[in-house]
Amino acid sequence: MDYIKAFLVGGLICAAVQVLMEKTKLLPGRIMVLLVCSGAVLSFLGIYPTFVEFAGAGASVPLLGFGNVLMEGVKEAVDKEGFLGLFKGGFTAGAVGCSAALIFGYLASLITDSKMKD
Question: Is there a domain that residue 52 lies in?
Fold first, then answer.
């Protein structure tokens, strides 16, 4: 039953993004930033953990989850290091995911025959 909730929540997030893309003039990059910032705000307000508990992977995998990771990293770093943690925490928490994306993207470019479009 949990996988059904995850599927529905993930589907609703995708549907909301599709509506934003079709009904507004927002570009995909701005919508992605909006999702990351929404995840950070929900995390800051303490709503995101309850959301993930309800929906599981449907809520933790999308860009909302990345915003949550960044905010949790900032909270932890501020608790440990004070004001400096405000700048350091997000980078520390998100470094593994960003590094993996860069490494796997590079490996995919080596395996495939990628070319620039004319």
Answer: yes
